[in-house]
Design goal:
Layout (H helix, E strand, L loop, with lengths): L16 E2 L2 E2 L6 E3 L17 E8 L3 E7 L8 E6 L7 E5 L11 E4 L4 E7 L8 E6 L4 E5 L11 E4 L4 E7 L8 E6 L4 E5 L11 E5 L3 E6 L8 E6 L2 E5 L11 E4 L3 E8 L8 E7 L7 E6 L11 E4 L4 E7 L8 E6 L4 E5 L11 E4 L5 E7 L8 E6 L4 E8 L7 E2 L5
Parallel strand pairs: 2-13, 3-20, 4-32
Antiparallel strand pairs: 1-25, 4-31, 5-6, 6-7, 7-8, 9-10, 10-11, 11-12, 13-14, 14-15, 15-16, 17-18, 18-19, 19-20, 21-22, 22-23, 23-24, 25-26, 26-27, 27-28, 29-30, 30-31
Length: 406
């Protein structure tokens, strides 16, 4: 699991939780009464400033942040999906000043969709896990600890696997995977063998879900999984042996595309933020906040207007006030929509930041220039770039630079 630690002036804290590569946060029934309280409907002038530099990169669909060579500088891994025509994952090693070395590409098979990082073979070095949609497989690329990776180990899984999440679901000290298949809609669990391979998948309820995230939603010390789909969030309680219970479902009322887990009200219980598109209703996107009750259930949602076409969401303490914030990639608005958290589970009006390109589909967070301020990496599908948005100190104006040569 990639829980990248960012440096921040003493007294402040940061939490980084990315979606579409779900990370651990420290007979189904539908729960009625999920209400909607409109808020944050209008963008405000940005109190945050970012300087954007775009790097040419075609087909980026998912990214993971990690320190792949052990130098204390955040690096990037990005899938080259390219509408199913790509066949590689790229690793960009950070230089520590917000720039990156030229990408090194590794073969994964056709259609690498999502990438996450974790130690899947138990050698203490970060590896990459990639869902390879058109190979019906998950690829594990073992990290060597110097920023390079070995040949992919392939495990056959459900048809067209998409998003991944990692966690130890059976308490054996080895990382396992949860993933969804786009064609059959099942949420599956792969129990890790500890060497980068996995036991045969176990498929659970057909939830037509996406974007699995992992947390202990009921406080029993066993990891659970939440997945979004069919206008609902489904929480599947872990049994501690690798198995999952049937999902308890909570209504969203929109078409969910991504989610992230975090503690948005500071009560020590995991909450969920879901980015959805309401394009069918012609009303743009929304961000739904579900506060957890610590017993496996979610409280009625609160909705925030969120751009035009949300595609991914990440959580981090962007402004350093010790409260968790949210960043949403808005493909329809060519922006990253930032919601600053109030610390009580609610959020301020949104701040729209230019994405540094066209059609942003993924956003990740890291301190790429090591100045203690969280920065953003944005995959822009339309302009075929990865934009690095370095946060400028208060009082500095933002700028956007043309694509740089790698």
């Amino acid at each position: 699991m990639d829980r990248t630690r960012l440096r921040r002036p003493q007294g402040a804290r940061i939490a980084v939780i990315a979606v579409m590569g779900g990370l651990i946060w420290a007979g189904a029934r539908v729960v009625a009464g999920a209400g909607s309280a409109p808020a944050g409907s209008a963008p405000v002038s940005a109190a945050l400033n970012f300087n954007a530099t775009a790097l040419p990169f075609a087909g980026a669909n998912s990214m993971a942040v990690g320190d792949f060579n052990g130098d204390g500088i955040p690096d990037l891994a990005a899938t080259q999906y390219a509408d199913g025509d790509g066949h590689q994952v790229a690793v960009l090693l950070g230089k520590g000043d917000g720039t990156f070395q030229p990408p090194v590409f590794y073969e994964t098979g056709n259609g690498p969709y999502s990438v996450i990082t974790g130690d899947f073979n138990g050698d203490g070095k970060p590896d990459l896990a990639v869902s390879v949609a058109y190979e019906n497989s998950v690829a594990i690329l073992p990290g060597k600890g110097d920023g390079t990776f070995g040949a992919a180990k392939m495990t056959v899984v459900a048809t067209y696997p998409h998003e991944l999440a990692a966690g130890d679901f059976n308490h054996d000290g080895k990382l396992d995977l949860a993933l969804n298949g786009s064609s059959n809609g099942f949420l599956s669990v792969l129990i890790g063998n500890g060497d980068g391979t996995f036991k045969p998948q176990v498929a659970y309820v057909d939830f037509s879900g996406t974007s699995p995230v992992v947390a202990d939603f009921n406080g029993d010390g066993k990891l659970d999984v939440a997945v979004v789909g069919r206008e609902r969030v489904g929480v599947m309680i872990g049994k501690g042996d690798g198995g999952l219970a049937e999902p308890v479902q909570f209504l969203i009322g929109h078409l969910p595309v991504a989610q992230v887990v975090g503690d948005f009200n500071g009560d020590g219980k995991p909450d969920i933020a879901v980015a959805s598109t309401n394009a069918a209703a012609g009303s743009g996107g929304s961000l739904s906040i579900f506060l957890g009750n610590g017993a496996g259930a979610l409280k009625p949602r609160v909705d925030y207007a969120c751009g035009v076409l949300p595609r991914s969401v990440a959580a981090a303490d962007v402004n350093g006030d010790g409260k968790l914030d949210l960043a949403v990639a808005d493909a329809g608005g060519n922006s990253v929509v930032i919601f600053l958290g109030k610390g009580d589970g609610s959020f301020q009006n949104r701040i729209d930041i230019p994405s540094g390109g066209i059609e942003p589909v993924f956003v990740a967070v890291g301190d790429f220039n090591r100045d203690g301020l969280p920065d953003l990496a944005v995959a822009n599908a339309g302009s075929k770039t990865i934009a690095v948005l370095l946060q400028a100190p208060a009082g500095h104006s933002a700028r956007v630079e043309a694509p740089a040569k790698l």
